Amino acid sequence: ATPASSHVARPGNHAPAEAPRSEAVLVAIGRVPNGKNLDAGKAGVEVDDRGFIRVDKQLRTNVPHIFAIGDIVGQPMLAHKGVHEGHVAAEVIAGKKHYFDPKVIPSIAYTEPEVAWVGLTEKEAKEKGISYETATFPWAASGRAIASDCADGMTKLIFDKESHRVIGGAIVGTNGGELLGEIGLAIEMGCDAEDIALTIHAHPTLHESVGLAAEIFEGSITDLPNPKAKKK
């Protein structure tokens, strides 16, 4: 089959005479909040200088009976964040004392390979003055990754050096976003490296790379050379 072709044209004096053609076009111009365009001010709803609607942890605006959720209330502008905000807003409207206060929100770049992360990055940990340590399991050591032709991936966990608690994680590889759930749950529940390392993960799976990364940190890894192993 012949690959589909796309072309992008733009008006103006600086536009090329012939529109360039390619197999794929990436639009990466970002998004701008339209709180002001909604005329929210007419209802007394406060909108900040950037165009976001201000809300509290119950998703209530400065007008008590008006709630806002999703991209319009600020970063990160992600669908799954908006859905959870919607749940909280509905519960509050129904009279429940619920709040939107997640420790972490996962993010995924749907590239090839996927890049997925949750919690703190190394840069953010440094900025917060957190003493941390990382452990990375290369998918080249994963039988499932090799069989699935995605052995160039990796799973990285970030731990608080003192408490050994998981504070962040990143995965690069095919369907990497599918592996974020355990890491996000570990951060929310305050799990440490041992909690993950002692959890039995199915084999052979890409998912077990999370447990193996924790084993690397713990010094109990047997799938790879173990630099932390005690010498007898």
From TrEMBL:
<feature type="domain" description="Pyridine nucleotide-disulphide oxidoreductase dimerisation">
    <location>
        <begin position="105"/>
        <end position="213"/>
    </location>
</feature>
<keyword id="KW-0520">NAD</keyword>
<feature type="domain" description="FAD/NAD(P)-binding">
    <location>
        <begin position="23"/>
        <end position="86"/>
    </location>
</feature>
<dbReference type="InterPro" id="IPR016156">
    <property type="entry name" value="FAD/NAD-linked_Rdtase_dimer_sf"/>
</dbReference>
<dbReference type="GO" id="GO:0006103">
    <property type="term" value="P:2-oxoglutarate metabolic process"/>
</dbReference>
<dbReference type="GO" id="GO:0006979">
    <property type="term" value="P:response to oxidative stress"/>
</dbReference>
<protein>
    <submittedName>
        <fullName>Dihydrolipoyl dehydrogenase</fullName>
        <ecNumber>1.8.1.4</ecNumber>
    </submittedName>
</protein>
<comment type="similarity">
    <text>Belongs to the class-I pyridine nucleotide-disulfide oxidoreductase family.</text>
</comment>
<dbReference type="InterPro" id="IPR004099">
    <property type="entry name" value="Pyr_nucl-diS_OxRdtase_dimer"/>
</dbReference>
<keyword id="KW-0560">Oxidoreductase</keyword>
<dbReference type="InterPro" id="IPR023753">
    <property type="entry name" value="FAD/NAD-binding_dom"/>
</dbReference>
<dbReference type="GO" id="GO:0004148">
    <property type="term" value="F:dihydrolipoyl dehydrogenase (NADH) activity"/>
</dbReference>
<dbReference type="Pfam" id="PF07992">
    <property type="entry name" value="Pyr_redox_2"/>
</dbReference>
<dbReference type="Pfam" id="PF02852">
    <property type="entry name" value="Pyr_redox_dim"/>
</dbReference>
<keyword id="KW-0274">FAD</keyword>
<feature type="region of interest" description="Disordered">
    <location>
        <begin position="1"/>
        <end position="20"/>
    </location>
</feature>
<dbReference type="InterPro" id="IPR036188">
    <property type="entry name" value="FAD/NAD-bd_sf"/>
</dbReference>
<dbReference type="InterPro" id="IPR050151">
    <property type="entry name" value="Class-I_Pyr_Nuc-Dis_Oxidored"/>
</dbReference>
<dbReference type="GO" id="GO:0050660">
    <property type="term" value="F:flavin adenine dinucleotide binding"/>
</dbReference>
<keyword id="KW-0285">Flavoprotein</keyword>
